[in-house]
Write a structure and sequence with these properties.
alpha+beta; 3 helices; 4 strands; 36% helix; globular
């Protein structure tokens, strides 16, 4: 997991503002398949939105903690029922973060 400053998190939330959710968490909730889907989306995009559907019985903050502990993502913010997750590409990072 990447340690991000508050300035970097704010920058990433701004970049994610116009994005659509890539991963949806619903009734199936959290499992290894979900962790693999999030990892693949992070490899493809580096910055993603994760939508926690109303059918998910787990609180969105707990979902965020689960995502951080089971993937290499850092949660940049929680806006309503949407999580913003970031993980730089291991070989070719695309996004540049402020210092």
């Amino acid at each position: 997991m990447v340690a991000l400053s508050s300035k970097q998190k704010k920058h990433l939330r701004g970049l994610a503002h116009t994005m659509n959710p890539v991963v949806n968490i619903g009734r199936q909730e959290m499992n290894t398949g979900l962790a693999k889907a999030i990892e693949q989306a992070l490899l493809d995009h580096e910055l993603i939105k994760i939508k926690v559907q109303k059918t998910c019985e787990t609180d969105r903050r707990i979902v965020g903690q689960w995502v951080e502990s089971h993937t290499r993502a850092a949660i940049c913010g929680i806006i309503g029922h949407v999580l913003v997750a970031y993980a730089p590409h291991p070989e070719e990072p695309k996004l540049r973060l402020p210092r």
